[in-house]
Specification:
Layout (H helix, E strand, L loop, with lengths): L7 H6 L16 H7 L2 E2 L6 E4 L2 E4 H12 L14 E5 L8 E10 L2 E5 L2 E8 L6 E2 L2 E2 L8 E7 H15 L2 E2 L4 E4 L4 E8 L9 E6 L2 H6 L5 E7 H7 L6 E14 L17 E16 L17
Parallel strand pairs: 11-17, 13-17, 14-17
Antiparallel strand pairs: 1-2, 2-3, 4-5, 5-6, 5-16, 7-10, 7-16, 8-9, 10-13, 12-13, 14-15, 16-17
């Protein structure tokens, strides 16, 4: 997965996110600041506008914390995010549950159905067909590879265990023990009526930089699918923060009376990641794309 010339330190450097350790929670981007001035209701029912949508005040606070300020995400520089995991009861399918997340922000508990993870997202063009047979079918349309250090995945597993009682299996991820990396096969929405995952690139705002050292902002350049298909300058492996919705699939338990939301008697569970948004810091050459047939690989 990694280039042979790279070592573990070089690989980890692909996930180091500039500025984040010096960016306080109080800093919000200009769009979020503008939204904060637009509110309706009062008290616990107060609604705020975040990126064009009216949301409860608590949710808006969590969205800004995770999406705009890039706080409490999992990664090399986030050894212990202030977030708790729990299983949502929104689905009727007892074997398939959505995970929700509670963030502690300024002493307040705020719920959100998303987590942020330091990743490298693979947007390098792939071979579509080999001798008439599909290779990596629908790559860039319905799914993409997201690479993260194995220590990050281990941390996520420990949070799942602490919050739900579930042990997480290795199904759905590809481990590269030689380079200490994990490749997550992340789903992306692609059908009409579903929000496609937004792709944001780093934009330095000179006015903000003059006011706050090392402040950064991002500009949306399209969806992940549009970047992969239509923007050759962005077709590479990006080091970024990925925002994910996460669900858990629970296998059959020995005792049919045990429900998946019960802490006792659980076996292993499989995590499923859906990419909802990307904040890219730029293309990296420290991580090589997964190649199933290196001698047969053909670029678009």
């Amino acid at each position: 997965m990694c280039k042979s010339s790279g070592n573990k330190a070089a690989t980890m450097n692909a996930y180091l996110i500039p500025f984040q350790q010096r960016q306080p929670d109080a800093i919000v981007d200009e769009a979020a600041a503008d939204d904060e001035e637009q509110s309706s209701g009062s008290g616990s029912s107060r609604m705020l506008k975040w990126r064009g949508n009216w949301v409860p005040e608590e949710e808006a606070k969590a969205l800004r914390h995770v999406f705009d300020n890039l706080q409490d995400h999992f990664g090399h520089q986030r050894p212990d995010p202030r977030v708790r995991f729990y299983m949502s009861l929104s689905r009727n399918d007892e074997q398939h549950k959505d995970l929700s997340f509670t963030y502690t922000i300024d002493g307040q508990s705020c719920n959100l159905p998303y987590i942020g993870i330091d990743i490298c997202i693979d947007l390098t063009p792939k071979l579509v067909h080999k001798h008439g047979q599909p290779m990596m079918k629908d790559y860039g349309k319905t799914w993409v590879y997201a690479y993260t250090p194995d220590m990050t995945m281990d941390k996520i597993k420990s949070y799942v265990k602490a919050g739900t009682g579930l042990n997480v299996s290795n199904d759905g991820v590809d481990y590269d023990p030689n380079r200490n990396l994990v490749a997550i096969k992340a789903k992306v929405h692609h059908q009409s009526g579903q929000p496609m995952p937004s792709f944001w690139v780093l934009q330095e705002d000179t006015q903000l930089l003059s006011m706050r050292e090392n402040s950064v902002s991002f500009s949306r350049i399209g969806s992940v699918q549009e970047v992969y298909d239509e923007q050759p300058s962005q077709q590479g492996i990006h080091r970024c923060v990925g925002m994910f919705a996460v669900s858990v699939e629970v296998g059959n338990t020995p005792n049919p009376s045990i429900k998946p939301n019960s802490a006792a008697g659980r076996g292993e569970a499989r995590l499923s990641f859906t990419l909802v948004s990307v904040r890219s810091w730029g293309v990296t050459d420290c991580v090589a794309p997964i190649v199933h047939s290196p001698m047969q690989l053909q670029w678009k």
